[in-house]
Amino acid sequence: MIQAKKIDFFVLSFGLISSIFLVYFFKQIINFQHSLIFVIGLLLGLTLYHASFGFTGGWRNFIERSDSSALRAQFLMLAFAILLFSGIVNSTSIFYGNPIVGSVAPTNVSVIIGSFIFGLSMQLAGGCGSGTLFTLGGGNTKMFITLIFFIVGSLVGTYNFTFWLDLPSLGNISLLEKFGIINTVLIQLIFIGLLYLLCSFIDKKRNAVLNHSDIFISNGFNAIKGPWPLFLGAILLAILNFLMLNIAGHPWSVTFAFGLWGAKIADFAGIDVASWTFWTFDYPKIALKNSIFADHTSISNIGIILGALIASSLVGSFNQKTKINYKIVLAAIIGGFFMGFGARLAFGCNIGALFSGIASGSLHGWAWFLFAFIGAYFGVKARRWFYS
Amino acid sequence: MKSIIFIVVFCFFIGLGYIDHSRYGIVYNSLEQSNSDLEDNNEKQILSAPCSEFGGG
Question: φ and ψ at A172, to 5 degrees?
């Protein structure tokens, strides 16, 4: 994906000027914390692009070739995030003293169904929640189609939300509240360690050689132009999520904004989305009546797109041609729609539910991981038709 | 050419955002609440958590 090319100064100038403008704009219309959330988004986009830190491709590499490198990096990211998060969730921000809460949601049948759908769909679309944003910002035209249908799917997912919410549920299970901080950290780290070993074992069994240092090094490493090693990406993403937790008051999330954007557009078109049960819940109700720029997920998503755009301009790859045909467009439409739909059912995507959920000690994050991975297995099989 | 189209589309959507902002304004800013202003944990959850009850990040 990344080749040594000249810096694209036109795209870089746009990325930098618009970023500076938006930092100033958010400070003026809301406050400085919103500018910081946007800057975190920029850094997330830069990191995701330079480290090529994708869940979709990483899972596919493991499913198809037992290549565990991306999965191992994800486990290290989760482990580091757990260490950072566990002592501070349900406490107050270390910077502002504002209340902070984790990503804790019910572990229920809708999480199982939603994450399965999401895992399958992200393989068709070729990108997950964060992946859609950073590859779009990196100049992948197909991802614009994916994002549009991601938004549509997210909105449709809010229509019959109570049906899914009424399905059998274990309720909100916070490991931190159940077992305390030390025990939760130990339990989660041991479990992650076992998963790391299992993936390594499968990789070595199939490929004969396993080099654990592959995620720590990157051929042609360049701090400005990338590529960055996966490990660096993993550590930075965990730190940036921790900063998001302390500045925004909640962990990094992506897909709530997609549903909100869809609802705002539908509302503008005269559809009474405010009467749908989902949009009568306290948080969504406030977000729907509020400026879109007051929504943290929206401004961090804009930041991710611009951060990836800046990164791709530094590599000089923004204007690379994107392979596209009717099958790929179809995959982007189906994949995007069902990722959005699945994310609503599962209380988030690979970021809000998996990454932030597990870091916050919520059991639904682990359920999400398991069933999304099963879905991804079938998605890898299904995508062969679209990408053949 | 792709970069020009991207810039136009990006600015269009930021413009849509600005129209939305002009229409609604800042009705509520959760970051202006201090911890002591919030009476219970449920209230904290509602005001600062798009990830859960039931924002769904």
Answer: -70, 120
Question: How many Cα neighbours within 13 Å face the side chain of A52?
Answer: 16
Segments of chain A scoring below 50 in pLDDT: 1-2
**Which residues fall within 8 angstroms of residue A272, CB to CB, at 6 or more apart?**
none
Provide the 10 A C-beta neighbour count for residue A353: 35
Tell me if A334 sits within 8 A of A116, measured CB to CB.
Answer: no
Q: pTM above 0.90?
A: yes
Using CA atoms, how far apart are residues B28 and B26, in angstroms rounded to an integer?
A: 6
Contact B51 A250 (CB under 8 A): yes
What is the reported pLDDT for A2? 46
Distance (Å, whole) CA A243 – CA A95: 9
Task: Extract the runs of DSSP E, i.e. beta strands, from A142-238.
Answer: 169-172
The verdict on a CB contact (< 8 Å) between A356 and B51 is yes
Predicted local distance difference test score (pLDDT) of residue B50: 75
The two three-digit tokens of residue A288, written as one number? 């729907």
Q: Can you tell me whether residue A98 is helix, strand or coil?
A: coil
* Preferred mutation among B11, B37, B54 to probe A, highest tally of A CBs within 10 A: B54
Q: Do residue A249 and residue B38 have CB atoms under 8 angstroms apart?
A: no
CA dist A74 and A48 (Å) reads: 12
So what's the ipTM on this one? 0.89
